Amino acid sequence: MKDLLEIYENKQPEIVFNWKDSETEAEGWTVINSLRGGAAGGGTRMRKGLDMNEVLSLAKTMEVKFTVSGPVIGGAKSGINFDPQDPRKKGVLERWYKAVSPLLKSYYGTGGDLNVDEIHEVIPITENCGVWHPQEGVFTGHFQPTEADKINRIGQLRQGVIKVLENTTYSPDISRKYTVADMITGYGVAEAVRNYYEIYGGDVKGKRAVVQGFGNVGSAAAYYLAQMGAKVVGIIDRAGGLINEEGFSFEEIKQLFLAKDGNTLAADNLIPFDEVNEKVWALKTEIFAPCAASRLITQDQISSMIEQGLEVISCGANVPFADKEIFFGSIMEYTDQRVSLIPDFISNCGMARVFAYFMERRVQMTDEAIFNDTSMTIKNAIKNTFDHNSSKTNISKTAFEIALKQLV
């Protein structure tokens, strides 16, 4: 696996597009690792301090993810080094997408990512640039459909991603009009845990869980884990956190989800970040869902959780460990050798899978069909890993080997 990984990591990306904004200090990159299958896909993120190496590592991660979610295309990513809280953000995104629109028409498909919203920013801004849909390049480059078929499938994709959830199994509150895009990634993170216990033995019900991050992914993961009967004992977010060693009830987690301040945990009894960051890693817990930014989790934090009975990690964040390596760094390897570590390209493939699902010809548009498809995709990937290695350790190593054999 390590030899395959070294070849894959060191292979230069096929395309690097670099942009400098004419009106602000913003700088952006689209990195296309390869045009496997004639196209590449990966979302657009924005954060202050982002650099090209971050975008490159995420592009390579996306390519691995497509071996699980489909379609059979290359990995890509876009990143903009700019403060997303800056009031000039909208103008920056408008100029960025105008510059990158020829790629989006031809062979690159994008979507929302960290601090960039799929529905309110990516779709309307790219439409104004003459792009039918942010995934148009994948249709053009990979599927090469007839014009009529392209129109039909883009219509299906457009409708599906922003579909308002009507089923109370999947929506915390149907009156608030949560969409597939709002909930699917966190759902996949929770389903990875449920499928893990189903395949490797055990039951998610009654297991204690810690969730890191309470944005779109973390809050939805907490919601669905609690719905399955897991006991969320700790939540740590940028602003602070909450701890309840007996476990929050499903109703309490649901209320925390509904009370979010944008993408941030909000509660009257919020524990300050420094205090919760000291305590949360020492909680007795079996499940850990890291759903915050990349490269945050230290070996000390993981060691502490392992001592407290940690069984499984389902990664909602891409590359959640504080390793310098693109993928399989020393902290990730240490973790993989000691507990069941479901890698990000399996557990957080929900949105990529939704795109792939709606790109197919005439699919069912019900909440159940969409969410079950993501669950089955994750289940099949975990089962495939189990069939190659039935041990509860080295799951990530095995999963990477399966994926990299398709790419190298």
From TrEMBL:
| Alphabetic keyword roster | Oxidoreductase
The parts of the chain that form a coiled coil are: none
Task: Return the InterPro entries for the record.
Answer: Glu/Leu/Phe/Val/Trp_DH_C, Glu/Leu/Phe/Val/Trp_DH_dimer
Ranges for domain Glutamate/phenylalanine/leucine/valine/L-tryptophan dehydrogenase C-terminal come to 181-408
Q: Looking at the record's lineage, which domain of life comes first? A: Bacteria
Q: Which family does it belong to?
A: Belongs to the Glu/Leu/Phe/Val dehydrogenases family.
What is the name attached to this protein's record?
Amino acid dehydrogenase
User: Which species is this record about?
Assistant: Mesonia aestuariivivens
